[in-house]
Structure formats: structure tokens, C-alpha cells
């Protein structure tokens, strides 16, 4: 039963993010690396290189991190090993990706 809730939550987040992406548009030149994350740092690059609001959710849909970055480097050393959903907001655009922390 627990697995069912995980799957439903992940599908809901994915569907909701797809709707937001259509409404606001995808971030131009968006890249996320490395994924999976092994050293506690991830780099998020975009064409505009503007400040980015970052939200990270666990598979249950609980927000586990909210921050703003002004460069490309994001520290994830506080996150446990697992699968997360990463949402990046830059100006009026949004990108959503699956993030794996090892």
C-alpha cells in the first residue's frame, strides 16, 4: 500500500509540473549535472544564468529544500540518499526534473 501512495504522489507531481511547464514555458538551455549526485553538489546551468529559485520534493511530495542560487552550484549535502523531484524557477519559466542522490 505504501508503494501505491509513492507512485500516485510521483505521478501527481509529474502531471502538475507538466501543466506548469506548458503554461510558463521550459527554461532555455537548462542543464542539470551530475545526476545521480554522488559528491553532494549539483550544477544547474541555463542560457540566461539568472538567479534561480530551487524547490526539492521527496517522493511523497513533501518539500525538503527551498533555496535561491545565484550561480550554478547547489549543495545537496543535507539530503539523504534517494529519489527527489527538483523544480527550478527562473524569471517566468519552470523546469522540473527527477533528481537521484546516492
UniProtKB/TrEMBL annotation:
Keyword Transcription: no
Pfam families linked: Por_Secre_tail
Signal peptide stretch: 1-18
Entry keyword Signal: yes
Coiled coil: none
UniProt entry keywords in alphabetical sequence: Signal
Domain (Secretion system C-terminal sorting): residue spans on this chain: 32-101
NCBIfam families (alphabetical): Por_Secre_tail
Protein's name according to its UniProt entry: T9SS type A sorting domain-containing protein
Lineage of source species: Bacteria, Pseudomonadati, Bacteroidota, Flavobacteriia, Flavobacteriales
Amino acid at each position: 500500500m505504501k508503494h501505491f501512495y509513492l507512485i500516485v504522489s510521483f505521478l501527481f507531481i509529474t502531471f502538475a509540473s507538466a501543466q506548469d511547464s506548458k503554461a510558463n514555458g521550459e527554461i532555455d538551455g537548462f542543464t542539470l549535472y551530475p545526476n545521480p549526485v554522488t559528491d553532494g553538489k549539483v550544477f544547474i546551468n541555463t542560457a540566461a544564468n539568472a538567479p534561480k529559485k530551487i524547490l526539492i520534493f521527496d517522493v511523497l511530495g513533501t518539500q525538503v529544500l527551498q533555496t535561491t542560487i545565484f550561480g550554478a552550484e547547489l549543495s545537496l549535502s543535507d539530503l539523504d540518499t534517494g529519489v527527489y523531484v527538483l523544480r527550478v524557477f527562473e524569471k517566468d519559466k519552470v523546469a522540473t526534473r527527477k533528481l537521484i542522490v546516492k
